[in-house]
Write a structure and sequence with these properties.
365 residues, Frizzled cysteine-rich domain, OB fold (Dihydrolipoamide Acetyltransferase, E2P), five-stranded mixed β-barrel, two-stranded antiparallel sheet, Frizzled_dom_sf
Length: 365
Amino acid sequence: MGSWIKGNCSSNEDIFISLAILILLVNNVQNCCGSPKFMADGTMYARPPSVCVDIPTSLKLCRNVGYTRMVLPNLLNHESLTEVVQQATSFVPLLSRHCHANVQVFLCSLFAPVCIPTPPGESMNGPIPPCRSLCESVERRCGPIMLEHGFSWPLMLNCSKFSNEGLCVSPDVNGSTTAEPPLPSTAPNPVCPPCRIELQRDTLLDNYCASEFVIKIRVKKIKNKKSRGIREVFADKKKRVIYKNGPLDKRDNKKMKLYVIGRKRCTCPQLDDAVTKKPRRGRSEADEHSRSKRGARKKKNKKGGKKKRKKKKFYLVMGRKDGRKLKVTVIHAWDKNKRILNTAARNNFGARDCPSFDSTGSAGR
């Protein structure tokens, strides 16, 4: 754990940081953490003094990160645990993608910077920022994953704000390098990201908490733009259950169009036809279609009634609103035989386990 901080740490000590680093931190706090005043919407104001607090259990992003105390305000200028937990929840699903070995270390250095004890008589120091090299390494691997979902690397994580000089969080300060995972597969027709999320209780809860809206819909029609990696899903207005409304307004609910975004020509088993019949040798698709219609008429005449229409499927959809677009991050075909999905729906997807806050603004569960 000591190897996270760029400096001379003893591998034999159990403490997070050595006394030498503590002295270095005191001497370089202005250089590593910036001025005690900063700009916000063009206005300069005094940064509140740093304090150490316990990492709340509701901050799932930083569970088992290796320390239990964090600094407020953090490096994202969050001054309360309420802000920290609310903003960090959106990044929890990224951990399950395993896009980088140190993605949790990087994110927690921003959302929940480690609290470093100060010598007696010294004032509390500010948070230790991540090294720029760590930020760029994580962005290089995890940025494409976010783009697959239709979201760019957040400005709040802009690596140009950090430096490799002075004290900073780095996982490879001893000269060792952590092997980075390979870049996302370039194999033809990969499954679109929203369509490949596994149906498990824990992932349902994590994605529910991270999503801005969660709904059950019946699909009215789908416009496939596979060459661009986009599917426009139009939801039936009447057959809909809203579990989490979030930023959805009247316009969204009146004519709901959802975007399933992925790589060019990516597949989505939940939405695409499971079986596509190929025309027999020597017959065109038009011939097959004509034969199919004739066969349907014969069946109708034999049974003396109309052929039953195939019922349209229901889907569980989770997503986020980006401007006017409703971008899908998770989609599952609603199957009544799926016990886990039905149980989750009855319990409102465990919404009670999402971050909640008391009247004092402290994060809890």
